[in-house]
Specification:
The complex is a heterodimer of chains A (604) and B (599). With 604 residues, chain A is of the alpha+beta class. Chain A is built from eight helices and 28 strands. Helix content of chain B is 19%, strand content 31%. Chain B contains eight helices and 25 strands. Classes of the chains: A alpha+beta (604), B alpha+beta (599). Chains A and B meet through helix 2, strand 4 and helix 3 of A and helix 2, strand 3 and helix 3 of B.
Amino acid sequence: MMRRLAPWVALGCLAAGTAFFLEWPLHSPLRALLGGQWPSRPRGPSGWTVEETPLPAGDAVFEAMRRELDRTMRRLKVGGLAGPYYAAYRVRDVEDASARASFGALVSERRDVSREVRPEVRVGEPGFDNAHFVSFEGWDYESTVLAAPLDDDVDALRASLWAATDEAYKKGLERLARKKAYRTTRKAEDQAADLSPAPRRRYFEREEATLAGAPDWASLARTASAAFRRHPDLREGEVKVSARAVKTRFLSSEGSASRESVVLVIIELTASAQRGAGPILTDTRALAFASLSEVPSAESLAAEAEALAGEMTALAGAPTLQSYVGPVLFEGQAAAEFFNQLLGDQVSFAKRVWTGDDDDAPHFRPGALTTRLGDFVLPRAFRVEDDPLAASAEGAALLGHYSVDDEGVPAAKMLLVEDGRLKDLPMGRGAVKERGSSNGHGRGLFSQPTYGRIGNLFVSSSGGLPKARLKDLLRRLCREQGLTHGMVVRRMQTGDLRSAEQLLAPPVLAYRVDAAGGGEEPVRGLEFSETTLRALRDIVSASIERTVYNLMQQGPTRRDNPSPVPASVIAPAILVRELTLKGNSTTTSYAGLPNPISEYEPRR
Amino acid sequence: MTRSTGLSVGLLPLAGLLLCAAAGRDESMTATGAPASPAAVRAAAEGPPASPPGAASGDPVLRAMRKELARTMEYYADEDPPLYHLAYQVVDSRSYSLRAELGALVRDNRTVRRSADVDARVGSPRRDNTHQIKGDSGGEDELNRGVVWLPVDDDEGAIRAALWRKSAGAVAAATQRHAKATTNQAVTAEERDRSDDFSREEPPPSIYERPDDAEPDLAPWRAAVRRLSALFKPYPFLRDSWVELEVDSEDRRFVSSEGALLRTGDARVRLYYRLEARSEDGMDLERGRDYYAPSLADLPDEARVQGDIARSAGELEALLKAPAAEPFTGPVILRSRASAVFFHEIVGHRLEGHRQKLESEGQTFADKIGRRVASRLLTLHDDPTLRALGGEFLAGHYLFDDEGVRARPVTLIEDGVLRGFLMSRSPVEGFQRSNGHGRRQAGYFPVARQANLLLKVRDCVPYDRLRRLLLSEIRRQRKPYGLVFEDIKGGQAQTARGGQSFTVDPLLVYRVFPDGRPDQVVRGVEIVGTPLSSLGKIVAAACDVEAFNGFCGAESGLVRVSASAPSLLVSELEVAKKELSARKPPILPPPHHDREGVE
């Protein structure tokens, strides 16, 4: 499947009714929109300058930011309390276009332009300030974000920054007071700095991201979704295209500044299938592109829809299994999700957020591996790096690419795992005792706090096998263990669809492999059970070939506050010695009437 | 709109909220009563109900609706319980929104979408799935099936596929709720009102209007909202200010298993502005004005809006300096739009038909038909067929309600005597038929709602005379002052059993002194009290009828309404002090007023 997708990359799957996240604080650079090529290292450290570099001349937004930031730092204080010791503005200009079509007909089409301001106001001192604390029910978790004028009018822009800053400062003072009170009642373990030192750097990109010249999204969605009309077992067949151009400006009271642009296009194909009175099975495949020129043709998308329809229809008629215990081969997207969920998520969010209410604590948990620096977390053959500066891999553009993180810190490549041992963590400016400074991995949703998290996660293994050999190995392991069948997982649900108890989301496309003959048959309704981080060390072998997988990485707060950011995982297929899969309870539905779409001519 | 508005009675003990701020009366609004009507193609109303009028036969959306409705009815008619009624309502809505602040454009949106509601009834008109489930607070909320978005392309097959999915879900949910309601009836005490669950109505006529789908020319308006919003720049006390223009149109199609076939539509524009400030003690204050009209051409000219903005800014400045309100009980005048909201809340919501039989409701008026419930001076109507009143746009206008019933004017109170209720197709004792007031926001189950509420008072006097009557009443009661409620934001009412009350949120209130001192602005006044006692204390009215246009939120979502009334003298009203926001005004002055900030 991943092969069929080339040169695109798959971006996760979602169950029915789950909205894909449309909030993208993106930090990959503008792709060569005006006909240029994607450079292999588009902007290395050489693009950076020191803080004395002037802000771009004639930029009214920077002018408003500079003047309001100056006023804030010099004069914003109230009632004998201290003013901010640090403040930064992020202002983003967003151009959105989206289209959604069902069975060939347009359901919605939207274009929107907006400008938003987000002040980061810190009171207290770098060692202990108003950040990394949630006082009650997560209500004060969100940052202040206000709509700002689209017109480049300095007075009107300053008024928005002024109103947002005033609110953020007052909230910051209140939160600091509550955090201080909390500290007196608890022996909180993490006393490392809330704002570690960072280099003062400036980076200004010249290109402007724009959706001008974009394809006709409505017609793309119509044509692609019309392919679903040929499949009478589908209840829903939908294609949604969301395109966004974002220009983000950053300016901090320390003098760091940046301006960069990005284009992101996400195309989601959703199919729901039902056979007779069987369960309704839904899968969403998302494809992500970092430039308009990469967006596939309507015909290619229609072929993708056709394939999805076929897979979901076959799955709807597939048998269920009660349980499976044995070796599991993860291929393509499933292998990448395996690493995303068990490794990427678990090495991220190291800085602990204190929660005033104990009930909130599970929603703000650091990754489970963030306290295991120096330990073996993978077999010795594995090496893992995270490199946001990499723009592409295996010929595909990477979604986790950026040059400056959301805290204004230059992105940097880091060695995460060497010879199976955990060597480092992705860090923002919120420090932990083992890691006292940022390595340019502080990112978050525009309206939410930033955390250290992965960008482009490169997983490699020495002594890998050709992919075809992994399946042979799976069958051999089965025979050795006296099993008649093995299991191959080719698609998994994305991390946000895990329950709080699950480390691994359920498979979407799982196949039972005959240990003797090697034949495959789809099985449905399975989920992983009793999975632990030990699964990483139980990897028996990996493939030489690697899959490039673009995704929206889940934040530390699951469910209601997912805070996803774009990321990529580049990983080989892997064979895990033993995992447990259980049949989940599937509900049956009414058979009902057939889809009336079958009475109509399939469209071109 | 989503249900997160939190206004549904199932979620909150609120029966109704008149939410929006007012549309000012505007003499320059020269609407003649006929809106900029779309090129209407009225089909012969006398045609057989199930056969589409000529113009409708070429309508792929209606065709899809009719085909899927027929197929669904046939398939489920023999189930137990049978599907006996099915209706589809499809609404094409188009909206444009412009917003400007301090001279700069902040928002420029256009939204086009097509919603579908599927209303399925299983069982029989006598007892069906919509019957109340006593003691189950979530039981009514289950009737709200949520909205489904249909393709905006006129693609018959794809539209049918969406209706098909929604219908299957609606029938399954109806069957489940029918079982629950049947059990609930068996195990709980018999209801006082044993009316049927669904009224029998005359077969509706076929009406087919083709909407005017020309794009409005917004270019001059982008400039206008920028110019108007720049007028707020001179005022250093403003925390926030904005000007918005909304242009909305709706094109509604309705088909039912009874043979209804309707396509009607309407359009509306709203220009409004707001100015917000916060007092030193943390009280949020605002002034503003709304102008509603059937089309952009009918909005007032810019000079007039400029004048209003200057006056509003002056009023807000006065409010900031004004003393905070004290708790007070005494005589007051409610200026016309304030009294209109007052009647919407304290009377209108209690006259919604279904509240007379729901066991959870206060049933204030259930057995009072034919009896005096208010002063003999008062007559109260609701008339959705009115497009305007005295040249003033009325937001609650429609031709057919959301159950496909023709809108009809209804007399609720006549000379103080209760005559009728606002009726949907849910009958109550003595009222077996709908009068076309079954309304909903897309995604909700329709219930009886207000449309254009009209209060008429006999023997009205000029306003000056009403004010003199207030002064005498203050003296008679030996009060230090009385109050005049000049402007009002909205209100809310609780109609549930055991907790009937209302609040109304005034924006501009004056103290009036009997000794001839000038009037004094007060801030932070809130009207509180129990409804019926207030109703009996209306002693006189002026002849100055004005309309309040806005949205009303209740268990069937937000619907557009208006309420019109004259200024009223109330001999006794209870007033409380509004809660403070507990936040200080901005620390630094606005950037464009900061002398120190000049570099």
